[in-house]
Amino acid sequence: MIEEISIRHLGVIGEARLPLGPGFTALTGETGAGKTMVVTALGLLLGDRADTGAIRSGSGQALVEGHWHVDEHGAVAERVRDAGGDLDGGALILSRSISQEGRSRAVVGGRSTPVGVLNEIGQQLVVVHGQSDQIRLKSATAQREALDRFAGPELASVLGDYQEVFRRWNDAQAELDVLVAERDRRAREAEDLRLAMTEIEAAAPRRGEDVELAERADRLTNIEDLRLAAAQAHELISSESLDEARDALSLLDSARRTIDRVSGHDPELVPIAEAIANAGFVVGELATQLSSYLASLDSDGGRELETVQERRAELAVLMRKYGPSLDEVIDYLDSGSGRLMELDHDTDRIESLRAEVDADRARVMMLADRLSDLRRVAGIRLSERVTGELAALAMGSARITVEVTHREEYTASGRDVVAILLQPHPGAEPRPLGRGASGGELSRVMLALEVVIAATDPVPTFIFDEVDAGVGGASAIEIGRRLARLAQTAQVIVVTHLAQVAAFATNHLRVVKDSDGHVTASSVQQLQGDERIAEMARLLSGLPDSESGLTHARELIETARELVG
């Protein structure tokens, strides 16, 4: 139940507070005062799309805040907690702000949330009906949804099972269609992949092999230069010439002997002589390493280079086809094996999918038939009860018929086409609501449906925006009476311009328009006593001070009390 709504800077409303509470709340006011903005504010709290054009001129943002009382252990409270919000003894606060820049912010139980959370919560809290919903009631979809709500939990359970199987059936059928349609292409892909795998496996590349071969090729290409440089370095360090050599080893040996001859005269030369001797050992080791390096240079490098270049060419072909790097070629081999296994199992998968599709199709057909049976039975009951309600809404000769027929294809809701037919008087041909029903008749049919459906699918709050459009006189009184009856089990909020409807309200709010000649601002007043009588007189005659209007207003309120009992 909505306890209170606060609105700031929305449309013509500067600032307003709407005390609501249980029972039947009527919202009245002059044309252009902003009654529609109240419905817009409720829509924002329920997750409707934000429109910056609704922000009051000269304001940076509009803000709407709603105070609800909900069951602490119910589905709404659970969803609020899932979203990170808090409840205080069943008290829930929802708020929504929209800025001129187009930013929208939703807060649920003190926690910022996506706007979609408001929509999820709103669907469980409120049903909104406006003139656009009267138009929607003409659609087959809206009529089927109304019948399904009336049918109750048994149909809802079967429909849930059906939709689960239907989605699975559709998904499997779509996959099967793709596999069958692309079977030839996938067969070619498998053959190409098999050839590629054979080619790569035959070459047996190793990770990093291309880098190793490049280094080896560079060495073999420059082997003579390497041999000459190593030989010259070895000659300079340790000459093998029989002539008097002046290589590094000989020079170091001469230096050592020279120092040794005089080191006995100065102890400081001893460590120097030792260092020279050590240097000789190091240079000698270098000479040995150079000799080993020269020995390792294969004299038949040309043949090895040819082999290396052939292998590099072989790897280059693989990298060009499946690379561009050698690692990617090897990765392709690894992933391709799995893909080839998948493609090779297409036939098995097709057969498996066909079995699944056949089984799910049979299940879909069975559940769809069950839905049809439940809808036909519910349609008969709904027809009788709504017809009874219409009799009480000054349409005593009218009759409603709910017709359930089949279409060829199956959809997410089954294969039924639901049509609500209106027979305005005996002998007339029943016609769909979309053809021939006036706005007033649609208003009464919609109200009758909600009164009947509320018995099996209760909703905490109903909001009607000018549900009495196109209605007057005795019909309007009956609409008010039925709204009062609905308010006995649910909160009912009605935007109306008819005194005959407002007379049944237990809470009467008036949207007041003030103007200073430049800016129009609206606020909301809760009416009681003489103020309410004056507003009722204005609704009746346009003259809030008319004595006859005031008398009529009092009489109307008293009549409403007697009718409600």
TrEMBL record:
Pfam families: SMC_N (PF02463). It comes from the Bacteria. Residues 2-518 form the RecF/RecN/SMC N-terminal domain. SUPFAM superfamilies: P-loop containing nucleoside triphosphate hydrolases (SSF52540). May be involved in recombinational repair of damaged DNA. This is DNA repair protein RecN. CDD domains: ABC_RecN. Keywords: ATP-binding, DNA damage, DNA repair, Nucleotide-binding. Belongs to the RecN family.
